Amino acid sequence: RERLDFEIDTIVSMGYVDYFLIVWDFVKYAKDHGIAVGPGRGSGVSSIVAYCLNITQVDPIKYNLLFERFLNPERISMPDIDIDFCYERRQEVIDYVARKYGSDHVSQIITFGTMAARGVVRDVGRVLGYTYQETDRIAKMIPRELDITLDRAMRVNPDLKNSYDTDPRIRRLIDTALLLEGMPRHAGTHAAGVLITRRPATDYVPLQTNDDIITTQYPMGIIEKLGLLKMDFLGLRTLTVIQQTLEILAGQGIHMDVEDIPMDDPEVYRMISAGDTDGVFQLESGGMRAFLTSMKPENFEDIIAAISLYRPGPMDSIPRYIQGKHRPDTIVYHTPKLAPILDVTYGCMVYQEQVMQIVRDLAGYSYARSDLVRRAMSKKKHDVMEKERQVFIWGSQQEGVPGAVKNGVDPDAASRIFDEMASFASYAFNKSHAAAYAGNAVQTAWLKAHYPAEFMAAMMNSFLGSSTA
Questions:
Q1: Beta-strand pair 229-236/213-219
Q2: What is the pLDDT, as a whole number, of residue 79?
Q3: How many CB atoms lie within 10 A of CB 54?
């Protein structure tokens, strides 16, 4: 009750009451009309208010999810409750919102495709009249890396650099491409973002049409900076599969709702531990299966951790996590004060929320301030981090932080803990988001374990684009 009162006070004082009620309204509409809604997404899952309003389905108290990760009274920013809907019926919810608030008050949001390294080389080559073969040869010299640039491509591929240095035609091609790289190439429609405005949208932003869809002419970032209300309506095919499975079962006289699926069925965890996860949300890749068979998840917390760990960066902690899970005697804490925070992940830092708990419980930060520290760490703001190191270890009377040493932590241990947090925070995962997606994972695993034929039939229907069982 104390936590609920704090959340309501924060929501009211920050002016977000209408925001929560709007989300509650369209989520209720979806559920009342049989449109599958996900258990939650992102940091909004940490809100008890959202849970009590039936916007989210994960208990924040049970899984120790921190509200300040979502709304921080010391950092004014727009809330962001993203909602997953049935892939096939998502548009019905957007249409409802347009009817409710007026079609002139609701608009989807534009996105701009930009000229990336390979694409800009091909575009420039075509305009300059180069042959396809000549342009294609240069484009294929650019490594297939995420966010690769032409400058980096020439640094990492000597053949490309040599072609640039020795062939005037290639130099002209790349020099022209460098001038255009990163510029907008075409307009599209954001996959999920929807703008809702108090007055007609044209009072705030210019509009246009993209393939008969009305969109803003400003992209997401500018919409947010203007303080306008943006909602994310996401389509998730997994929800369609779950919904269709339940419809098939209903046709056989087995009536149940997705909320009836238990999160603690031992048979589900035996199946997951055996690597039998074809079709199970988030758990079906080959690498994830290998991890799960070594990990042997036994409960819902283990699934949350698996989803959080199996990503670049955190994967380095997987051997330590597995060892701690199977051999608890090997877990070592820098201070016993870490045990209540890290015991759920067998001594490993896995979640952003754990960073926030550590600075709060060991050094006496408020949760609001702890989230500011987490953000500084994740963005590698070294000047801020060096100041916070001193505050974390020794405290600050001016800022009302007693510090870890005053709370009985050895100074060397406090320094090592801060170093671990700083190196980990840049890839730490949001536990709220992982908990919601773990819910989808266990739901699909339960349906597969107990009704495999119906589940696979629903998967095939979804894959083929059919809405009938």
A1: unpaired
A2: 80
A3: 13
Q: Write down the residue that tokens 């988001």 correspond to.
A: 433
| Mean pLDDT of the chain, nearest integer | 92
Residues facing 401 on adjacent strands: 396
CA angle 275, 279, 281 (to 5 degrees): 90
* CB atoms near residue 323 (< 10 Å): 15
| Cα–Cα dist 258/239, whole Å | 10
What is the value of pTM for the model shown?
A: 0.83
Separation of alpha carbons 276 and 162, rounded Å: 50
Supply the pLDDT for residue 466. Answer: 47
pLDDT at 73: 79
Q: How far apart are CA 432 and CA 438, in angstroms?
A: 10
200 has pLDDT over 80: yes
Task: Report which of 266, 265, 262, 284 is spatially closest to residue 275, judged by C-alpha positions.
Answer: 284
> Looking at residue 65, what is its pLDDT?
94
Structural contact between residues 184 and 113, judged by C-beta atoms closer than 8 angstroms: yes
Whole-angstrom distance, CA of residue 251 vs CA of residue 368:
50
For residues 12 and 53, is the Cβ–Cβ distance under 8 A? Answer: no
